[in-house]
Each structure stands twice: as structure tokens, then as C-alpha cells.
Amino acid sequence: MLSIFGNIENPFDTLSPGSSYTTSTDPGGGLFILLNNLLKLSIVIASIYAFINIIIAGYGFLSTTEPKEIGKAWSRIWNAMIGLLFIAGSFVLAAIFGYIIFGDPSALLVPKVYGP
User: What three-state secondary structure class fits 19?
Assistant: First the structure.
């Protein structure tokens, strides 16, 4: 049944042979790769959402003359900017805490499992 699609190769081996996205020699390493990719995806989605909110609020700010609506637009712009600050700040704090606790800034951002 699947032969109708032809021979499908792993695209990550073609793009970056031997990358950590395809194989993991660590026990439980595949789970960390999955969670790391989901975290990156959620951060990208949150950033795009904040950017769209800034654009929509800017349009609302430019198209209205009522002070109440202008206040709503400013509130929406500030909320989106604070959200972007939290997104960027989480990476900075994770790197700082990783450096202080483990001596490696990427320790919390790219965890490794050591085991038998």
C-alpha cells in the first residue's frame, strides 16, 4: 500500500547528515529531541502571534479617533511587546541559570541524558 508513494527517505539525513534530529545514542534522547522541537515550535508560534497582534493593534490605532479605542490599541501593543519580552527573557534566564548551576549556558536549553 505504501509503495504507491515511492521510496521516501529521511529529509534530515539529506539536509544535515548525522544530525541530532535523526538519531540519538543517548537513552531517552529521542524524547528530549521531541520536547526541544516542540518548545522551539511553540516559541515561533507565540512570536508570530505577538507580531500579528502588534500589526492589528497598530492598524486599530491609526484608524480610530476615539480616545477609548486608542487606549485599547496601546494596551494591545504593550501586551504583545511584554509577551515578546517574556519569550526572549526565558532564553536569557535559562542560559544564565544553566551557566551558574552547570557551568554551561546550553545545559537547560539542550539537555543531555547520561546513563548506561
Answer: coil
C-alpha–C-alpha distance, residues 61 and 99, integer Å = 42
User: For residue 19, how many other CB atoms are within 10 A of its CB?
Assistant: 11
Q: Residue 34, Cβ neighbours under 10 Å: how many?
A: 11
What letter would DSSP give residue 25? Answer: -
Whether the model clears a pTM of 0.85, i.e. scores above it, the answer is: no
Distance CA 5, CA 53 (A): 40
Sole residue written with cell 477609548: 68
Domain ranges (residues) in the chain? 50-110
Per-residue pLDDT reduced to its tens digit, 53-85: 999 999 999 998 899 999 999 999 999 999 999
User: What are the angstrom distances between the C-alpha of 70 and each of 32, 62, 65, 81, 89?
Assistant: 45, 8, 7, 17, 28
